[in-house]
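Notebook B, p. 112. Complex prediction, attempt 2.
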Amino acid sequence: MQKQELKQGIKDSIPIILGYIPLGIAFGLLANKVGMSVIQATLMSVLCFTGAGQYIAIGIMQAGGAVFTIVLANVLVNLRYLLFSTSMVPYLKGKVPTAAGTLLSYGLTDETYAVAMNRYQNHAPTASYMAGLNLSSHVGWIASTLLGALLGSYAGNTDRLGLGFALPAMYICLLVFMIKRKSDVLVALSSALFCLLIGYLVPATMGNLFNIIIATVAGASLGVLIGERD
Amino acid sequence: MSGTSIWIMIIGVSVVSILPRVLPVALFSRYEFPGLLKRWLSYVAPSVLGGLTALSVLAPDGVIDISVYNRHIWAFVPTLLIAVKTRSLFYSLLAGIVAMALLYNFV
């Protein structure tokens, strides 16, 4: 275990946790409202590290939907991680042992993915860094869920604090950092456009984030076509 | 939904949220991707971030809202400027959160 790398991972998870606080609290509150106990809500965040998927579960429960529907919706929501995880493999290979990499990949989310890929552009990945980043982000998610479930209806409106913009701000900043090649700009812009267009034409894909998957595949393919050869 | 159904739901969601993340790392780590696929994968991150940024700013509540009433668009401007100028996640985040808090409370 490299202490410095672990510390860096934990440090890099702070902005993620900041963004998770309002989302986790809101999840805890809503879970409470649809009849989940504090233990169930908290354990769901321990076992299922999938914000969008958990919100969808609550929505379907509220509408009186079946367990099967919830699981199926979550297959769709989490499908994008197949793509994220695969794109990380070339970076992890030879640097992080397969067993450790596999275990720690459970902490892969949109946010930890963006932060980690940003770091791996200049630093070799290590299991310690992954552990610091992914585990503390997960702990942040679990703790804010617990807080929300405990607060029940006492919680105020966290929007007033501007925390609702923490994650968008992080995406904007990491996108700026991520731009290395001219083709990266075109890829990001076209993916953004695809995403909105698909979401506009097929609104259902907004809820399950399927538009992100299609837009990512289209954007990356465009990158290969127009990109500079290295 | 009964207590038992809730537990079954939690286990089910857990399985389908774990598998897509861990399977690629578990299966492909011994495998060398061909050059073209590697180039394609190198565009996945900028592509994902382009999509996530667009959705989180232009459709903050899951519905596309490109209007002057969307506070996220206004908060986007100082955040982008600070990100480009300082290249610091901390200052960009601070700019975004403060901008959003001001917009929320005073506009």
